[in-house]
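G.,

No rush on this.
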Amino acid sequence: PFEYLSSYSLSHDGEQLTLVARGRTFVAPAQQGRFVAATSAKARYREAHVIPGTKELLVLSSESGELEWWRVPANGTGGGERLTTDGKVMRWSAAVSPNGKLAIHSD
């Protein structure tokens, strides 16, 4: 079942795991709880991280036509907010600070 898993990330508090498989993003609780499809099929996703102190994810998405970083609700409802522009650079992995206020990424 893990052959389609492209990335995963554990939240800073260890309470949630984000999974990206076949271009979709999922959030799984560490204990009991609801497994959530956090993103729709309107775009492809490559990476996802829980933003501490929020109910949001930092995701690498092709929604704008280029790979850009977006902030999206972790529960899969509502729209997202694009955080980067200038898709001429190829974006890769990211890390979110423990307080959720900053993120860094490589390109």
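When you get to it, here's the other one too:
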Amino acid sequence: MSSAEADRSLAGRRRRALRIPANLLGRPRLRTAEEAGEERHASWLELFFDLVFVLAIAELAHNLSGDLTPAGFVLFAALSVPVWWAWAGYTFYADRFETDDAFYRLAMFAAMLAIAALALSVHDAFHGGSAAFAAAYVLVRVVLIGLYARARRHVPAARELCGRYIVGFGVGASLWLVSLLVPEPIRYGFWAAGLAVELATPLLSSRAIARTPYDTSHVPERFGLFTIIVLGECVLLVATGVSETSWRAASLFTAAVGFAMVASLWWVYFDFTETSAIRDRRPWAGQVYVYGHLLIVLGLTSVAVGIEHAILEVGEGPLGAGARWALCGGIVLFLLSTTAIHVAARRGGNVLVPLGLVATATGLALAGGGLSPPVLEGLLLLLLVGKVILGAILGGDSTVPATEESEPTGAA
């Protein structure tokens, strides 16, 4: 009998002795080891958990929409990092250790409440409400650290990884907690330091990750689902823009072009973004896939805000500089990140084509000050449609595995 089977047998005897139902108080287990080779999909709890991030993305987009200045873009990116990192942290925990007992469910519900508080405090995080944002983030991390401490106790094979994450995330959360004791803007420095420690923790834990693997089919599905959430915000802002312009013909046309852009972005992501990078034996390949999705989220959210402003500003002359940079810059981030993932996956093909599209979008951001909203959207749409057509011709397929299959060694 293996040690894992012995542990489960002992747990069963203890539950029977205490008359505790298995679904009330289970124990974490390393699912990726016990269920190796089995196809796994997102659980209902994971899908429910994702819903709270609909609010978070909406608040981030609303914040950016109200301040399309250079400072506004910087603040938008700064606030997006902890929100996205909160989702990534729980996603990788669930990938390895998700159980269906009451304790785990209640912990996830508590995390959802903390993330909702984090989302609701986004608007004032840099305008007098930083204490609420910091406190909410600390709560988000405390729940996750508690889950890792529980997993470390019950899953001997994962103790090294859990210990690293407890220390790294604990130091990061402590810096956020200490930030409550200092005034702004010094407080923001502690936030940056805390995030730097947390983001670096998986990067410095590749060997522990290799010994405690993640599910290379489940993780891409989870990242795809989060991308759907952000694309949903794009669709929502298209509809919001139309409703706020009283359904004028010009706004309807601009909205239609904007929706075609969103559809093209969906097509590019789900047909041509390589998931094989997550299975690569080189530690940095998986990291490019994971952290590249932060740029994808930033880019898509920025595009959503740009489309909304394009609809609202149609008929008023050229599109404003802020909205133009949101549109073009968002597409640049999206294309750069998907191209980096493509390179990390060691897939063939000419990267000069997407880089040429990046250069063109950048040129439109710099020199497109005289273009009306529908014209600028139309030109960007042509770029995206060209990407879709070229991808189809070149045979892009996100389901093709990397050239060398092996255990994953470095995502999170």
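Residues 8 and 395 are 46 Å apart (CA to CA). The mean pLDDT is 89.

Enjoy the weekend,
O.
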